[in-house]
Amino acid sequence: MTELTDLSIAEARDKLAARECSAQELTMASLKAMDEARSLNIFITETPERALAMAESADASLKAGTHSPMTGIPVAVKDLFCTKGVRTTAGSRILDPFIPTYESTVTANLWQAGAVMLGKVNMDEFAMGSSNETSYYGSVINPWRAGDVQTVPGGSSGGSVAAVAARISPCATGTDTGGSIRQPAAFTGTVGLKPTYGRCSRFGMVAFASSLDQAGPIARSVRDCAIMLGAMAGYDQKDSTCVNTPVPDYEAALSGDIRGLKIGIPREYRVDGMSSEIDAMWQKAMDWLKDAGAEIVEISLPHTHFALPTYYIVAPAEASSNLARYDGVRYGFRAALEAGDGLTELYEKTRAEGFGDEVKRRILMGTYVLSAGYYDAYYLKAQKLRTLIADDFAHAWQKVDAILTPTAPSAAFAFGSKPDPLAMYMNDVFTVPASLAGLPGISIPAALSADGLPLGLQLLGRAFDEATVLKIADVMEKAAAFTARPADWWRKGA
Amino acid sequence: MSVDKATVERIAKLARIRIEDHRLAPLAGELNQILGWVEQLSAVDTDQVKPMTSVVDHALYWRDDVIADGSKRDEILANAPAAEFGFFAVPKVIE
């Protein structure tokens, strides 16, 4: 018999509707899995009582027939979403303690749809990282190991993907600024979708780089991402950049018919140092698409090479501005002061002790590029490059309907193996360009590396055309038939 | 353009982050490494390019100018490290 924690959202939805299991049973199975996986350090805050109460009301609405596809589905929430009455940390000491008095729009939409919150999951501090090693609450451990070597889950949504890969929950919320949903999804054999900028409200999401941040679903199948995105997305007056455009039925878009669609292969994504197994997976995916009746078209995105350095000006600049709010006065952590210390010492000591090294590095970098005399040379230059990068994609959409690339240049790596910040930044080389252009992108697992670790493929689409991205990804997912799962070595007594 | 210890000290002051003296030189090195790498952007001719101001192609929405929220003093103060008499409390700033 299939364990309840193995069920996809779609399967659980059907079983709940058929009264073959209850939301409370599903939730209890997830809570047990959460308890057994504590050694993976996934959850910062567990909310079992709230989960059971939400499951009880989900069962009531299932009984009353007022349910929706997400009713009774357990969700792990990235600790970047403000949750009313539940501690929210953003993986940082500077928000210790912070208990929001309001709810983020994305989580409010999920609870409105009847989903069940299991708790708040770990992440890189303020979503700044690609390995989950910058969290004040310690690193998340990837359920996937290379032999006996533990690996990072990717970042910044490391707790979210690990919760899904370890089968604690069928899905999790993530956020993506430069690849923080897609890269960790690739590292853990999960499916992660970054929607178009403006598709989901950013209200109540702790801000990192406001022109890039976007919430999205992480699950174990394309169909589940489609279902979950439908519940997360939608116009919200509280976010002026959230776009008022209809949210289609994403699940209905999964027709399986991609005949005649044109899929672009950008030649600039063949970077030096990419492993041959990733290249082989990419080639194979082109064959799957051709077999399904799509046409493969070679394209050029000439400014790809400049996307990462552009990102590492724009994102730190916005971060230095956004993180100015952490002053030790209004919420969160305040450093202990000495006699005679004034307001300046309060700010400087609080921020010195409250932020970790990577966050400080980015705030300083951002402060520098925005400072008098340097603004034009760095920030304005980067915003011009961003226009060129977005134009590259705009030209591509005249020829193709979607773009296929690998998600990351490698599989998950060992802890501490990238001590150099630049080496760490290179992880996002394939995900950052679409972020700068605001475009939707999905990562699906498509192969295993020689070490037995999952590898991901990324599919990018036109702005607000998540439906086409999901439709093509669904076809690729069936062709890839990726059924591998991590051995549950972390389970007590297993 | 390269960053020295004095520059790190100056931007740390602007950013209101106290940096210990022994950390200034290593931080200058790290920032120079990143700045050296982003320097490659200067090779691109952008004289005729407009800087991006909005990544999605839509105008901001108008809304009615009405009070929709407020009267939440206690909620706002609920997370303050120190609050007294309905205000945020900070160290004495006037002698």
TrEMBL record, chain A:
GO terms for biological process: translation. Residues 25-470 form the Amidase domain. Coiled coil: none annotated. GO terms for molecular function: ATP binding; glutaminyl-tRNA synthase (glutamine-hydrolyzing) activity; transferase activity. It catalyses: L-glutamyl-tRNA(Gln) + L-glutamine + ATP + H2O = L-glutaminyl-tRNA(Gln) + L-glutamate + ADP + phosphate + H(+). InterPro entries: Amidase, Amidase_dom, AS_sf, GatA. Keywords: ATP-binding, Ligase, Nucleotide-binding, Protein biosynthesis, Transferase. It comes from the Bacteria. One of its GO terms (cellular component) is glutamyl-tRNA(Gln) amidotransferase complex. Its EC number is 6.3.5.7. The active site is at K78 (charge relay system), S156 (charge relay system), S180 (acyl-ester intermediate). It is an enzyme of class 6 (ligase). Heterotrimer of A, B and C subunits. Allows the formation of correctly charged Gln-tRNA(Gln) through the transamidation of misacylated Glu-tRNA(Gln) in organisms which lack glutaminyl-tRNA synthetase. The reaction takes place in the presence of glutamine and ATP through an activated gamma-phospho-Glu-tRNA(Gln). Belongs to the amidase family. GatA subfamily. This is Glutamyl-tRNA(Gln) amidotransferase subunit A. It comes from Iodidimonas nitroreducens. The gene is gatA.
Automatic annotation (TrEMBL), chain B:
InterPro entries: Asp/Glu-ADT_sf_sub_c (IPR036113), GatC (IPR003837). Signal peptide: none annotated. Keywords: ATP-binding, Ligase, Nucleotide-binding, Protein biosynthesis, Transferase. It comes from the Bacteria. One of its GO terms (molecular function) is ATP binding. One of its GO terms (biological process) is glutaminyl-tRNAGln biosynthesis via transamidation. It catalyses: L-aspartyl-tRNA(Asn) + L-glutamine + ATP + H2O = L-asparaginyl-tRNA(Asn) + L-glutamate + ADP + phosphate + 2 H(+); L-glutamyl-tRNA(Gln) + L-glutamine + ATP + H2O = L-glutaminyl-tRNA(Gln) + L-glutamate + ADP + phosphate + H(+). It is an enzyme of class 6 (ligase). Gene3D superfamilies: Glu-tRNAGln amidotransferase C subunit, N-terminal domain (1.10.20.60). Its EC number is 6.3.5.-. Allows the formation of correctly charged Asn-tRNA(Asn) or Gln-tRNA(Gln) through the transamidation of misacylated Asp-tRNA(Asn) or Glu-tRNA(Gln) in organisms which lack either or both of asparaginyl-tRNA or glutaminyl-tRNA synthetases. The reaction takes place in the presence of glutamine and ATP through an activated phospho-Asp-tRNA(Asn) or phospho-Glu-tRNA(Gln). PANTHER family: GLUTAMYL-TRNA(GLN) AMIDOTRANSFERASE SUBUNIT C, MITOCHONDRIAL. Heterotrimer of A, B and C subunits. Belongs to the GatC family. NCBIfam families: gatC. This is Aspartyl/glutamyl-tRNA(Asn/Gln) amidotransferase subunit C. It comes from Iodidimonas nitroreducens. The gene is gatC.
